[in-house]
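Fill in residues.
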């Protein structure tokens, strides 16, 4: 029996009609033959993990997605301390948006240092 880890951008649900359902079905099938750890992001107002799936997984963890909260603006993102995302800025794997953010941040920093 294999141990598999999944980091998902949203909660898998069997009652949805988009990628959430496809992922839920895949995880459900994999859970019958493997031990699964599932970590997923959930924004304000989004439904949680499908309860029919929760019991099939060995580990489940939900992480609040702050950039979908009401009032969470681009200004707040710019003020956000991305210390935890430093490995992403160093070129390690991560979300494309954060890689793009880090590249833009490095470029701005270099421009500021060069003009000083």
């Amino acid at each position: 029996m294999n141990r598999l880890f999944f980091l998902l951008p949203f909660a898998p649900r069997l009652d949805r009609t988009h990628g959430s359902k496809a992922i839920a079905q895949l995880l459900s099938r994999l859970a019958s033959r493997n031990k699964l750890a599932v970590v997923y992001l959930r924004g304000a107002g989004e439904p949680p993990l499908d309860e029919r799936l929760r019991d099939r997984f060995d580990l489940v963890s939900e992480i609040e997605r702050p950039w979908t909260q009401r009032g969470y603006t681009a200004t707040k993102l710019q003020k956000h301390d991305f210390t935890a995302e430093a490995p992403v800025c160093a070129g390690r794997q991560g979300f494309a948006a954060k890689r793009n953010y880090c590249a833009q941040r490095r470029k701005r920093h270099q421009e500021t240092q060069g003009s000083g």
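The mean pLDDT is 76.
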